[in-house]
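Fig. S4 source data, part A: sequence.
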Amino acid sequence: MLRKLELKSRKLEIDSVDRNEMTARVMNYVNSFYDELPNQPGIFGGDLPEERSIDLDIDSCGKDIESILGDLKRHVDSTGINLPSGKYMGYIPGGGLYGAALGDYLAAVTNRYAGLYYVSPGAVKIENILVRWMADVVGYPESSGGTLTSGGSISNLIAMVTARDALTVDLNQTKKAVIYLTDQTHHSVNKAIHIAGMSDFSVRVVRVDSEYRMDAAHLVQTVQEDIRNGKRPFMVIGTAGTTNTGTVDPLTEIAHIAGENGLWFHIDGAYGGLFNLCPEGREVLQGIELSDSVSLDPHKTLFLPYGTGAILVRDRKKLFSSFNASADYLLDYPDMNSEWSPADLSPELTRHFRGLRLWMPLQLHGTDPFSAAQSEKIRLARYFHDQIQSIDGLESGGYPDLSIVTYRYVPKSGDPNVYNDRLMKAVNASRNAFISSTRLNGNQVLRAAVLNFRTHREHIDLFLETLKEETAKLNCV
């Protein structure tokens, strides 16, 4: 019986001949994907498929690689929103560098555990080098530290827990503690507050100005009022690039207010924080280096696959204090003073070697192309903002801080929200661009999020031509 089980289980180990054949077929698929991509739309046409028509069930015998790739092509890579396309300008992430895919492939094949230094010193060293590099990009001191995460949601959660522990808010103080944010703060922050056990804290929504930035004067006023009422100001959350409009809060002013009042200053920089790598971004992001913690998403501004985030904390000892742990079965784990283990700096013990997907592209290309791509996206957004001024019927939002532009169609009569929804659907139906909308002050506005590394001037010009054609049709209604 054991021998029969062994023979079956050995099928999981693929020999070199079959491995080469499978790899060749996968590479053919990859090359076809890349060859077809320039001509593909930002969103595939047609209605969503019926759930029952997607036959991707698991069976007991397995399938050949060609059949599997056919299923991927039919059900995954030709339906829905096409994020890798240069015409994709709907939501923030896009792209996916090939070098990052190679890094993921190697990490999966070698299956190194990147949680504890003594298990895989090289893997942990690479991740710590990446953390230090990102800390240098945002201007954090040598005392800072952090870890790679799955994205901004987990990064924000780690920041909440670290701040809670560092400022020692006990159960008797929770109803007095106050967190300050704006209505433009990403919803993952509110989720993190809840998960971190801080639901009893008071949350103050600070006013925003006409460009949807936190009103620093109102923050001061609100903090002082809370102090007079016996409250304990605890944390202020600024945003380095809001999801709705891409605007950046007045980070330097907020930092000074936080310092004067003993507040932990966290910045949600998931979208915009790493724009500090390029000169246009640094000009807007002044003050990011003054925060106590910042969340970052390399899968956005460094164009990596989904699932690549980071949290940085000015004082890494506070991060370690919140998340380090031990167990009897880790008795063989020696003390390592030279390197910090990621498992001691986050909730994750089991974690894959996600750093290779960032380290590999940086090694292949260096930092200059990343900085240039970021500058290009900011300049493309500003170019788009300038060009839509001449399109009859369109009204632009504020001048873009980073790479998101808001705008809306203003009809001569009728409900503007209805017309903007119609315009968005018409643009997406043209397949020349994929855009999205949001709501500001009760009004539906359209968004162009220019952040795919494959998006260039030609894609923006095609988008502008499409907008001209579709708004001309609306003007005749």
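Fig. S4 source data, part B ends here. DSSP finds 16 helices and eleven strands in the chain.
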